[in-house]
Amino acid sequence: MSTEPVRKRKRPNLFTNDVRALLYAFGDVSNPDRESVAVLEDILTDYIVDMCHEAARMAHTTKRNKVKVDDFKFALRNDYKKLGRIEELQRLSKEIQEARKTFDDSEGKSLGKSADK
Prior knowledge:
This protein is mainly alpha-helical and 117 residues long. The chain has 2 domains: 13-75, Histone, subunit A (Orthogonal Bundle), CATH 1.10.20.10; 80-117. It is 70% helix and 0% strand. The chain is extended, with a radius of gyration of 22 Å. Its main location: nucleus. It is found in: Nucleus.
């Protein structure tokens, strides 16, 4: 039996700059301590992984291979702020999609008219 401690898998520093910016925005110094940023990033990464596992568990329960937004909504059903944010982002995404479609349609028509002249 080995006496080496069990090491966690090293995750890439995906959110380091974002965590630094958030710390500064919430009143910390402009260059926060590396250990503080690393701890917060680990907490954030663990939370995201846990949410993804929970959503995947919901998808598996309904016998689907793919995770849908509804699975995340179900996983966050007791956290009204996060659930509201998901619904707000979905609504904004739909508005942006419709605006792009309208813009593309109107742009295509105006280009077609100028090409006929």
